[in-house]
Amino acid sequence: VMSTMAEREAAEPGFYITTPIYYVNDKPHIGHAYTTVASDAFARFNRLDGKRVRFLTGTDEHGQKVQQSAEKAGVAPQQFTDRVSANFRSLATLLLATHDDFIRTTEPRHKATVHALWAEMVRNGHIYKGAYEGWYSVRDEAFYAEGELVDGKAPTGAEVAWVSEPSYFFRLSAFTQPLLELYGQRPDFIMPAARRNEMLRFVEGGLQDLSISRTAFSWGIPVPDDEEHVIYVWLDALTNYLTACGYDVADLDALRSGAARGGPTAVWPPTVHIVGKDILRFHTVFWPAFLLACGLEVPRRVFAHGWWTIQGAKMSKSVGNVVDPFELVDAYGVDAVRYFLLTGVPFGADGDYSRDALVNLVNANLANQMGNLLHRTMMLVHSKCDGCVPLAGALTDTERGLLDKTYGLLAVCRAHMDAQAVHRMADELASTVRLCNEYIDAQAPWSLGKTDPARMRTVLWTLLEALRCIGILMQPLTPQASIRMLDQLGIRPSPSGSHAGSAAAPVDDARSFAAVSPGHAVVAGTRLPAPAPVFPRIELEEAPPSAQPAAAPAVPTQPSAHAAADDQCLDAIDDVEGAVREQGERVRALKAAKADKAQIDSEVA
């Protein structure tokens, strides 16, 4: 049902979460998987918590690097992006992402939004024409001042090339004070706090006007009324969040006034952008400035997570230590991979990946603790209670304390997830599972069956009830295993339930967070399915040679024609990076020799 933004938000405020759209300059790696899984966990949590959720992901497909890589591969840019974008869509499916939209910046709907935003900024006097001269990273699609370079490279380690060309500029300098006011009024706009301080220092240093068009290539959205220029890829890319918000954004006046119309999951502004720390500046300086220039609301929050490293070193294709998420899921299963990514390191910090770390964490928390608790409880219910939920007797303070802790998990987890502390939510659940294991060991229901059957039934009922609540709350982290767990506990899904489990499939209220309460407790007499392993233990074979610490067990496959085409595309990307490095070295040599501008410009031509 279409309704206006004002009507929708007044009736039911939404939760709009995004990944960055992934640049099609490489095949997906563990960093992409990390961002996608984290964003999906936050989306699932909020759906299960009864909120109207919009979850967006997609691919960023324009820019100089894409055009040059397509030329090297001998294919048209659109064909190149079609191939690589499909890999990111496949990864999202593999990781069980429940996105409501997958945006591609080559779509006509996106071009229309970018043109609308550009026209608004022109109308408001924020764009002018000039010329740009300086360093540019083709890999990052970003401009860098001389003082920002580290050993002749971008701060990200990317090669830079010297650029000299006509350009349109955005008056970013005019937004220094508005951005500082934004950061001051909303201290949680940038999280974690250390990242906020980093951006604060950058803006306090004064902002320079930003080049927002290029003439050196043509693969991009053309500037309205001046098609010799294409719009800067980051202005293009960031606008995706507006294009795919679910409202009709062709009329920005309607969006500003709340009159824009949209479907059930339409939300504006974004509640939280989840990004890697390397693209924080674009999301917390450029993006809010673009929106302020158009009189539009800025996002509520931008959260920057850290990087995964290997033995403390950044992953690199040249070193050969990049982790392939497809191989990882094939080796260990999607729930194990999701759980490790979400809990293996505090969200927001850097973390070191190793196969041993993944296996040890999953075995300790899922197999040894949760899986063992579920299996022991279910086996006892089947052997001692004829496979039915037993009737509980009077609860002691011990049972009441354990169940109060379990019912209280929702409020605790909600506070953690509101702060994007997904690792703390997982810790709370793991801690409660450990309490349940201590409880079953102390009560020994296998012995009570002979000495006090009524007490045994009370203990088993308490364990089933605690497991029910834990299984419901585990769904954002391990969706497949949690469904199997709830199936075993007799918590049945129903098509009439709330929109909670995915973007497409509603889930019964019995599996939503509203059911984490005594009023939805397990019902005595309910027949339960036969026990089956839900969180199996991963057997760790002898570790591979240390030269490949990140490698998941290889899965031999026959290369397909499509895979060969992908490899051709990726080889072309490597060739482009090499050419950029060589040009940058030549320009640096000329500048060191105090060559005149004409000589330097000849290198750019």
UniProtKB/TrEMBL annotation:
Name the SUPFAM superfamilies for this protein: Anticodon-binding domain of a subclass of class I aminoacyl-tRNA synthetases, Nucleotidylyl transferase, S15/NS1 RNA-binding domain
For bias type Low complexity, the affected ranges are 543-561
Instruction: Please state the Enzyme Commission number of this protein.
Output: 6.1.1.10
A GO molecular-function descriptor: ATP binding
Q: Which UniProt keywords apply?
A: Aminoacyl-tRNA synthetase, ATP-binding, Ligase, Nucleotide-binding, Protein biosynthesis
Write down the superkingdom of origin.
Answer: Eukaryota
Q: Which Gene3D superfamilies match?
A: 2.170.220.10, HUPs, Isoleucyl-tRNA Synthetase, Domain 1, S15/NS1, RNA-binding
InterPro entries to which the protein is assigned, alphabetical? Anticodon_Met (IPR041872), Met-tRNA_synth (IPR014758), Met-tRNA_synth_2 (IPR023457), Methionyl/Leucyl_tRNA_Synth (IPR015413), MetRS_core (IPR033911), Rossmann-like_a/b/a_fold (IPR014729), tRNAsynth_Ia_anticodon-bd (IPR009080), uS15_NS1_RNA-bd_sf (IPR009068)
Disordered: annotated span: 543-565
Q: Which PANTHER family match?
A: METHIONINE--TRNA LIGASE, MITOCHONDRIAL, METHIONYL-TRNA SYNTHETASE
Q: What is this protein called?
A: methionine--tRNA ligase
Species of provenance: Diacronema lutheri (Unicellular marine alga)
Organism placement in taxonomy = Eukaryota, Haptista, Haptophyta, Pavlovophyceae, Pavlovales
